[in-house]
């Protein structure tokens, strides 16, 4: 049976919400992000996109391209409220909804809709309801699988509705560059280009064996399936959080080891707290470091035991920073810490001998959580993280995740 | 060097000693076995620098001598030969010819002087214990040594003699196996407490399969080395340093609840129910004890499993989760027809409370009790 999959993508989501809240912004180029030397564009309105502004672009470039843009720093709380309501609308259409970020999701309509045409009708209703109830527009792709649906939603933005049946694959998919295939990053694309394979069609012109000489054999099979428009990934309703992370970009590159260490501590605190809030524990810690010249490292290690405490996260992050990264004397522009291998805190195996320092850390976390809950996030912090006059505090340029 | 040995005797001896040889030896010579012949017969030895083994095999010595030969190849050759007499003869340049009926091999060895020395011990200070008893005690604790959680990577078991009793304790931080037995021991050098590496214990168990019911095992230590004399072989091992965790502190005192379950029934039930347990941190199986029955269950996204066992129980209902593997490990070695599961130990000063069973360890003991005090303490998995 042919599946009917929808990919729904909200148009310039943060910007559209801001315009809805303040209609005087209508028609103006609007950029959500932190202005200034080190800021990054989080997202922007279509009017700003006309000037060439894009997500994740340095704010300095955006300012040059579009000097008259209106800048807002973004309100995550509001966006996630709206996102929740939109998800509820989608769940009315089908229980099989897989949110992939705050502003996009896959829906499996197989069962409700007999074919793609009926799927498109359902998509139209969905768009209308979102417009009516939230005054926001979405672009929807309708296709027999996730890969084609996502591709389709992007073909007619904003406020689009695109049907992409398998029969349209030669016309719509084959001329596209290989980067458009799911799983092809800059490195794979470069390797494929080196072998003279730049379009999706070219991957089908060579046989799988010769493609397997360029990329791994499993990748070769995967890419050719996608190029034929095939993708059997299911729409997963209960998409668990796979990782939690926090990162900051700094106004000035960080060079002082103590400042860097305090930044790691602050991120470890934040991530550990997020874990505890969601009643999760993590088995792996990773860090992300970017220097002023945009060299980026990500490194990960498995923790001795699953945890939701900042101390073991910091310990792991320090090890990674010290032993697995060579900055070559350069300063740190961006520093992030994340965890993965998440599981409910209740699934843990209890231990017989709890080290005294671990027990102390657990009590400390319990108490600070309680205080923060009652008196607010700023009510308590670590002495090492207290802002002091004689201790320079790194200026943070951006902390919003960028979303397209 | 020249000797003749029955193929079956050769295979048996090689099987016994090659376990000590590391698959990826740090020094090339450690991949070899030391073969020595004198008027007493053939002696075969192996070493990984920490654990060594040496034993004698029945053979007709034609000419005394010594050489080392690659353990893996030698074992492979011996197994493949027909069941007949095998002749070993040292040629020049450490080459050895191996002849059996119409088959002849010539393999290259290395001289003995490159092989590490075996530690020396004063046998008069050795402690004698009944062999089968000792072997069973080792078997009953060794399985609890694992290295999954580096915070407790002991990789060995505590072996202690105090007031005539022999005690063995092993733990991986999540569970602890403890066994003690009064053997009326009088160690010549007083009380004795060492941490023996897992590898040595595993090799002792292998050797112990040759022990008769009346055989004894003797052991002793010198400096940082310990030796065991088991079934005609001497096994030596470097002792592990560091402090063994304060296990006395986590041994449950009196338990408010207990139930007796047939070992095999429980083992089968755990095996079946754990098939649908999530294995993210080990397969968790839920045990629910209520009037007249013990129910085991598990669940994942795939589905759920239930099994109910009839038990003689009339107390309060209680629920606890355990890692299925921890239970199976124990049920596989306990050796008694039934096990006694004790729950809800009373912590010092606090009154036991049924609701808290899931936070406190469970304790297993063999039923009926035997001459040893054998306890297996397992921390629960939170469900």
- Count of individual helical segments of chain A: 14
Number of strands of chain B: 25
Shape of chain B: elongated
Percent strand of chain B: 35-45%
Radius of gyration from the alpha-carbon trace of chain B, in angstroms: 25 Å
Extract low-pLDDT stretches of chain A: none
Please write the CATH class name of the largest domain in chain B: Alpha Beta
The proportion of strand residues of chain A reads 15-25%
CATH C-level class of one domain in chain A is Alpha Beta
Multimerization state:
heterodimer
Helix content of chain B: 10-25%
Low-confidence stretches of chain B: 348-356
Report how far the terminal alpha carbons of chain A are from each other.
33 Å
- Structural class given helices, strands, pairing of chain A? alpha+beta
Describe what you observe in this structure:
- The complex is a heterodimer of chains A (404) and B (383).
- Chain A has 14 helices and 13 strands.
- Chain A is α+β, with helices and mostly antiparallel strands and 404 residues long.
- Among the domains of chain A are: 174-227, 5' to 3' exonuclease, C-terminal subdomain (DNA polymerase, domain 1, Orthogonal Bundle); 243-398, Dna Ligase, domain 1 (2-Layer Sandwich).
- Chain A has a five-stranded mixed sheet with strand order 5-6-1-7-8. Chain A has a five-stranded antiparallel sheet with strand order 11-10-12-9-13, with helices on one face.
- In chain A, a hairpin with a 2-residue loop joins strand 5 and strand 6 (104-108).
- Chain A is globular and about 65 Å long.
- The mean pLDDT of chain A is 87.
- Chain B is α+β, with helices and mostly antiparallel strands.
- Chain B folds into three domains: 2-114, DNA Polymerase III, Chain A, domain 2 (Roll), CATH 3.10.150.10; 123-247, DNA Polymerase III, subunit A, domain 2 (DNA Polymerase III, Chain A, domain 2), CATH 3.10.150; 252-378, Roll (DNA Polymerase III, Chain A, domain 2), CATH 3.10.150.10.
- Chain B is built from six helices and 25 strands.
- In chain B, the strands form four sheets. Chain B has an eight-stranded antiparallel sheet with strand order 6-2-3-4-17-16-15-10.
- In chain B, helix 1 packs antiparallel against helix 2, helix 3 crosses helix 4 and helix 5 (263-273) runs antiparallel to helix 6.
- The radius of gyration of chain B is 25 Å and the shape is elongated.
- The interface between A and B is medium-sized, with 14 and 26 residues.
């Amino acid at each position: 049976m042919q599946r009917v999959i929808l990919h729904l993508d909200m148009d310039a989501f943060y910007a559209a919400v801001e315009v809805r809240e303040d209609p005087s912004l209508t028609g103006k180029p609007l950029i959500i992000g932190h202005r200034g030397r080190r800021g990054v564009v989080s997202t922007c309105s279509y009017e700003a996109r006309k000037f060439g502004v894009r997500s994740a672009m340095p704010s300095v470039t955006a300012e040059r391209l579009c000097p008259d843009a209106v800048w807002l720093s973004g309100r995550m709380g509001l966006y996630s409220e709206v996102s929740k309501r939109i998800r509820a609308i989608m769940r009315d259409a089908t229980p099989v909804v897989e949110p992939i970020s705050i502003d996009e999701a896959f829906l499996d309509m197989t069962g409700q809709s007999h074919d793609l045409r009926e799927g498109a009708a359902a998509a139209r209703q969905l768009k209308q309801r979102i417009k009516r109830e939230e005054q926001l527009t979405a672009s929807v792709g309708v296709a027999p699988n996730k890969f084609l649906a996502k591709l389709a939603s992007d073909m007619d933005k904003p406020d689009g509705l695109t049907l992409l049946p398998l029969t349209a694959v030669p016309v719509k998919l084959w001329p596209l560059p290989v980067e458009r295939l799911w799983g092809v990053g800059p490195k794979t694309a470069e390797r494929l280009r080196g072998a003279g394979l730049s379009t999706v069609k070219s991957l089908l012109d060579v046989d799988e064996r010769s493609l397997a000489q360029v990329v791994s054999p499993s990748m070769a099979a995967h890419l050719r399936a996608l190029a034929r428009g095939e993708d059997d990934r299911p729409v997963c309703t209960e998409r668990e959080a796979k990782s939690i992370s926090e990162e900051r970009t700094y106004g000035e590159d960080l060079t002082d080891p103590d400042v860097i260490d305090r930044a790691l501590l602050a991120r470890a605190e934040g991530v550990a707290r997020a874990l505890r809030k969601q009643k999760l524990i993590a088995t792996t810690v990773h860090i992300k470091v970017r220097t002023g010249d945009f060299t980026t490292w990500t490194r990960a290690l498995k923790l001795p035991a699953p945890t939701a405490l900042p101390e073991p996260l910091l310990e792991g992050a320090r090890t990674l920073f010290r032993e697995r990264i060579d900055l070559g004397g350069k300063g740190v522009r961006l520093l992030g810490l994340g965890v993965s291998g998440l599981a409910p805190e209740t699934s843990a195996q209890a231990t017989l001998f709890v080290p005294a320092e671990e027990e102390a850390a657990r009590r400390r976390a319990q108490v600070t959580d309680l205080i923060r809950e009652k008196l607010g996030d700023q009510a308590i912090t670590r002495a090492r993280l207290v802002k002091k006059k004689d201790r320079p505090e790194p200026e943070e340029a951006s902390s919003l995740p960028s979303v397209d | 060097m020249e000797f003749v040995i029955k193929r079956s005797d050769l295979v048996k001896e090689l099987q016994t000693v090659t376990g000590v040889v590391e698959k990826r030896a740090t020094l090339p010579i450690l991949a070899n076995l030391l073969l020595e012949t004198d008027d007493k017969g053939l002696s075969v030895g192996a070493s990984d620098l920490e654990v060594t083994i040496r034993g004698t095999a029945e053979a007709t010595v034609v000419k005394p001598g010594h050489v080392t030969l690659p353990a893996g190849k030698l074992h492979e050759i011996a197994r493949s030969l027909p069941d007949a007499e095998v002749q070993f003869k040292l040629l020049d340049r450490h080459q050895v010819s191996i002849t059996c009926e119409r088959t002849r091999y010539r393999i290259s060895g290395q001289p003995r002087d490159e092989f590490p020395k075996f530690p020396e011990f004063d046998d008069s200070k050795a402690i004698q214990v009944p062999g089968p008893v000792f072997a069973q005690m080792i078997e009953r604790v060794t399985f609890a040594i694992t290295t999954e959680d580096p915070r407790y990577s002991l990789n060995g078991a505590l072996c202690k003699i105090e007031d005539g009793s022999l005690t063995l304790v092993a733990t991986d931080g999540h569970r602890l196996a403890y066994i003690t037995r009064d053997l009326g021991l009088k160690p010549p050098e007083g009380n004795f407490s060492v941490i023996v590496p897992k590898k040595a214990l595993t090799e002792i168990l292998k050797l112990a399969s040759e022990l008769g019911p009346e055989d004894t095992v003797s052991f002793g230590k010198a400096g940082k080395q310990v030796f065991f004399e088991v079934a005609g072989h001497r096994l030596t091992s470097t002792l592990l340093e560091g402090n063994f965790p304060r296990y006395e502190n986590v041994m449950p005192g009196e338990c408010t609840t207990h139930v007796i379950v047939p070992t095999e029934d429980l083992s089968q039930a755990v095996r079946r129910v754990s098939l649908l347990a999530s294995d993210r941190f080990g397969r968790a199986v839920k045990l629910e004890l209520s009037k007249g029955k013990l129910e085991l269950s598990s669940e994942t996204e795939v589905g759920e499993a239930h099994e109910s066992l009839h038990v003689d129980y009339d107390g309060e209902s209680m629920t606890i989760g355990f890692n299925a593997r921890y239970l199976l490990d124990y049920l596989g070695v306990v050796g008694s027809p039934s096990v006694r599961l004790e729950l809800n130990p009373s912590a010092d000063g606090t009154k036991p409370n049924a609701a808290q069973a899931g936070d406190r360890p469970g304790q297993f003991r063999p039923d009926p009790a035997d001459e040893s005090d054998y306890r297996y303490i397992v921390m629960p998995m939170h469900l």
